[in-house]
Write a structure and sequence with these properties.
The complex is a heterodimer. Chain A is mainly alpha-helical. Chain A is built from eight helices and no strands. Chain B has a six-stranded mixed sheet with strand order 5-6-7-3-8-9, sandwiched between helices. Chain B has three domains: about 140 residues, 3-Layer(aba) Sandwich (Rossmann fold), CATH 3.40.50; about 70 residues, no CATH class; about 40 residues, no CATH class. Chain B is globular and about 70 Å long. Chain B is an alpha/beta fold. Chains A and B meet through α1 and α8 of A and β1, α2, β5 and α3 of B. Chain B: It holds the Pfam family ABC_tran. Chain B: InterPro entries: AAA+_ATPase, ABC_transporter-like_ATP-bd, ABC_transporter-like_CS, P-loop_NTPase.
Chain lengths: ~220, ~290
């Protein structure tokens, strides 16, 4: 079985790479780099809080592009093939992952060194946003018959992240500054969010042995 | 004839709506037609049998494989070709590349053998000449044939076709009938359709569904026979008829319980279908 899967994955590399949402990823990553590099365009010395906020916005922009990753116009045509969904989704994620790492490195390097936030902590935030975007897309696919949920998921993400920044109670605050005493606590919550999103995404990608009840709401 | 697909007690609810209500059926080799009005549960039944959506209750087997386990579901999918109601494509793929992509997903990993198989199915659906053309440049009928080729690739023993002739012009429909008839030779085909003439021309068995349940299962001749003595001609629409319409000759064709001395006509499969759905909101394509 594993040998078959490995051969299928090898054979799928080329066609699946052709099905990736290149336009959405290109727009998200270009916008992200533009946001991350904005402090270098300013004449005045950049403010650390501004740099952190722009880096967070850059991660969100990239996440919006990632929300299109599971769009599959051929979803219904390929609904009953023996190659399992986790394999197909995993391949898409694996194909994008190196690009995401390179993109994030570039985004970090665009931020002036003296105002760059702690790399580990801010990378955790970016990873959580990326995984959240993918998990939201996976849930949308699992709970509906929609073949291309990218637009709806990215719109939801675009609303949810600023809403989270504005509406979360102080003790659950996620978007704090580096000098804020809640910085470490906030990153414990970011780590928790990352884990929850990863588990939710993994559960959504698994082949359905039974329907999730929410699917009744989304059924055509 | 030994059944190749058996289902018992399939039940599926969407919220308060019963999409499948304790459906049991047995399919044998050849083309079986699935008729029913919109919302009858035809697509849901096909999706369940194609393992695209799990049922809430009930069980079924396809060619001896039980999809209730992970391994069984994969075995069913290896034996299955599925053409959904609204097939989607990667529009920038050529017809060949798309069917090849589906062939890989069906675990045909040997490149040479796979390409031979893709050429075979594209030839079978008469698309060899346009196999390098991008799907977005193909007509609706050609795209439907690409989807059929994708369903046929790997020579599945059970073919599930959900309204494959919708939106096709009469010539394309005729061509599709030929293809489905060919596909039914040596394999089990379940064909959902609104076209009673498709069933009359293609199918050796027919199942009529309404409100999630099976209302009839038998041969097209048996379904037609249900209307024997219940179709009559009159100069005006008979108010007692279940359905009635003016024909091209100016007389009315009525279906239902005829009055005494009525001028009885030979029934068609559509008449039998309408009477089977008596009391149900029937929709028959023109």
């Amino acid at each position: 079985m594993r040998a078959v899967t490995a051969r299928v994955v090898r054979a799928l590399l080329r066609p699946v790479s052709r099905t990736l949402p290149r336009r959405a990823l290109a727009v998200g990553s270009a916008l992200g780099l533009l946001l991350a590099g904005t402090p270098r365009l300013l004449s005045s010395p950049p403010d650390p809080w501004l740099c952190l906020s722009l880096l967070r916005a850059a991660a969100l922009a990239f996440g919006l592009g990632l929300a299109f990753l599971l769009d599959d116009p051929a979803r219904h045509t390929t609904a009953a093939v023996p190659t399992r969904r986790p394999v197909r989704v995993g391949l898409r994620v694996a194909l994008v992952a190196p690009f995401a790492v390179v993109w994030w490195t570039a985004a970090l390097l665009l931020v002036p060194g003296e105002t760059r936030p702690p790399v580990g902590a801010v990378t955790l935030e970016a990873a959580a946003v990326a995984v959240l975007a993918l998990a939201a897309a996976a849930v949308a696919v699992r709970c509906s018959d929609v073949a291309e949920p990218g637009v709806a998921v990215s719109a939801g993400l675009l609303l949810a992240v600023p809403a989270g920044a504005l509406l979360l109670p102080e003790r659950w605050e996620l978007f704090v500054s580096v000098t804020d005493p809640r910085w470490d606590g906030a990153h414990d919550r970011w780590a928790g969010l990352l884990v929850v999103a990863a588990v939710l995404g993994a559960c959504s990608v698994a082949e359905p042995r039974q329907r999730w009840r929410i699917s009744s709401l989304a059924h055509r | 004839m030994t059944p190749t697909v058996s289902a018992s007690g399939l039940t599926l609810r969407y919220g308060g709506t019963v999409a499948l209500d304790d459906v049991s059926l047995r399919l044998t080799e050849g083309v079986t037609g699935l008729l029913g009005p919109n919302g009858a549960g035809k697509t849901t039944l096909l999706r369940v049998l194609a393992t695209a959506v799990p049922a809430d209750r009930g069980a079924f087997t396809v060619l001896g494989h039980d999809p209730s386990t992970t391994a069984g579901r994969l075995d069913v999918r290896r034996a299955l070709g599925y053409l959904p109601q609204t097939p989607g494509f990667h529009q920038d793929f050529s017809a060949f590349a798309f069917v090849d992509y589906v062939a890989i997903l069906k675990e045909l990993t040997d490149r040479g053998a796979r390409h031979r198989e893709v050429r075979r199915v594209l030839d079978a659906v008469d698309l060899s000449d346009v196999r390098s053309k991008r799907i977005k440049r193909l007509s609706g009928g050609m795209r439907q044939r690409v989807a059929l080729a994708a369903a046929l690739v790997g020579d599945p023993g059970f073919l599930v076709l959900d309204e494959p002739t919708v939106g096709l012009d009469p010539e394309q429909r005729m061509r599709f009938r030929e293809l489905i008839a060919q596909a039914g030779e040596g394999r089990t085909v379940l064909l959902s359709t609104h076209q009673t003439e498709d069933v009359a021309m293609l199918c050796h068995r027919v199942i009529v569904m309404a409100r999630g349940g099976v209302r009839f299962e038998g041969t097209p001749a048996e379904l037609t026979a249900r209307a024997a003595g219940r179709v009559w001609s009159s100069t005006e629409r008979d108010p007692g008829a279940r359905a009635g319409w003016r024909t091209g000759t100016g007389s009315f064709r009525n279906v239902g319980d005829p009055p005494e001395g009525a001028d009885l006509l030979d029934p068609t499969l559509e008449d039998g279908y309408l009477l089977t759905l008596d009391g149900e909101p029937a929709e028959v394509a023109a």
